[in-house]
Amino acid sequence: MHQVSSPQIHPPGKDSDQSIVKESLKLKNRWSGHSMDRHPIFDIIANDSSSSSDDEVEMIIRFAIEEERLNSGGGSRPRRRRTFIRRDFVQATERIFRDYFAEPPLYPPNIFRRRFLMSHSLFLSIKFMLEATEPYFVQRRNAARRLRLSSFQKMTAAIRMLTYGTTADLCDEYMSIGESTAMKCLKKFVKAMVSNFFKEYLRSPTNNDIARLLALGESCGFLGMLGSIDCMH
């Protein structure tokens, strides 16, 4: 087994004296252009040189050097530069529209229902509701007059995360939405859905609702079943 040798401590000698002199000169040179004539540490060494050992002097010098390094910002962590990605929001919106909302769309309605867990008409109804009640989903222009994210992008990102349980980062490649923005879209979408549809869809079912769901289940071959039933698959 490989053994790690402990550091050896050498007693002060000529090498230590030379090291102290070098460190002292370095420190003195650093402070030569300072507003003070010299670092206060030199006064301490001069006044107490008769009783201080070489180890104590070296420790004081190293402490002063470390203090100077921290004061100059040498001890702070370097800032990471944020990488700017120039996303084409218009192209992403056109891609989503061409795939699902054009006439004819690239993907048929059954694939749309599978990927969005709703019909095409329901998606558009929710889109119009969000644009009317939540300003965040209204497409705007930035200071350079470039179009920003569209409601198609924001809704698709939120619904894909809810449908597939995927991470926000995976929304970037297809919808051109960064991770933090995708998470914001999801939170805004859920909050708007709850506030606008709570009374109608998040209440307890009435007797008419139960009868309708039982009839729907029976027509699909599920007798006495209540829950989410979709006979269109």
From TrEMBL:
It comes from the Eukaryota. InterPro entries: Harbinger_derived_prot. Pfam families: Plant_tran (PF04827). PANTHER family: NUCLEASE (PTHR47150:SF7), OS12G0169200 PROTEIN (PTHR47150). This is Nuclease HARBI1.
